[in-house]
Amino acid sequence: MTRAPFPRAARLLTPADFARLRGISRRIGSQSFAAEVAPAAPTAACARLGLAVSRRVSKRAVRRNRIKRIARDSFRHHRAALPTCDILLIARSDADQRSNAELRAELERLWQRVAALNDTRTAGTMRA
After folding, report:
1. Furthest-apart CA pair in the chain: how many Å?
2. In angstroms, rounded to a whole number, what is the distance separating the alpha carbons of residues 60 and 38?
3. Domains of the chain
4. Rounded to whole angstroms, what are the CA distances from 121 to 8, 26, 55, 96, 115?
5. What pTM was estimated for this model as a whole?
6. Distances in Å between the alpha carbon of 20 and those of 2, 24, 25, 107?
7. What is the pLDDT of residues 78-91, one digit of tens each?
8. Mean of the pLDDT values across residues 21-47?
């Protein structure tokens, strides 16, 4: 089993990080999540993740924490394959009704779309 840490450098931490992301991001959605993806800050060395799971998703903190835990774990395992970008993952109210396996599968597809988004954005910017 390979190590997949989630270091401090891979997290969106400050309100300024979130505010910058909200202004310049592209939005990708799925049934349970919305992801706002933007080019990374100049100081970032890898993909960074920020999570937003509001009380609208569930009134119970245990359920909100389950969603965050699954999202963090999925990101840790896919971080190496993602482009250097900032991602704000917003849980939708439907996320609380999904099983752990369904959430993981949905996040897997979402990370693939994030990687493809970066590929299409850079594909054609320079001619060989």
Report:
1. 54
2. 30
3. 12-118 (3.30.230.10)
4. 27, 11, 34, 32, 10
5. 0.85
6. 33, 7, 8, 23
7. 998 999 999 999 99
8. 88
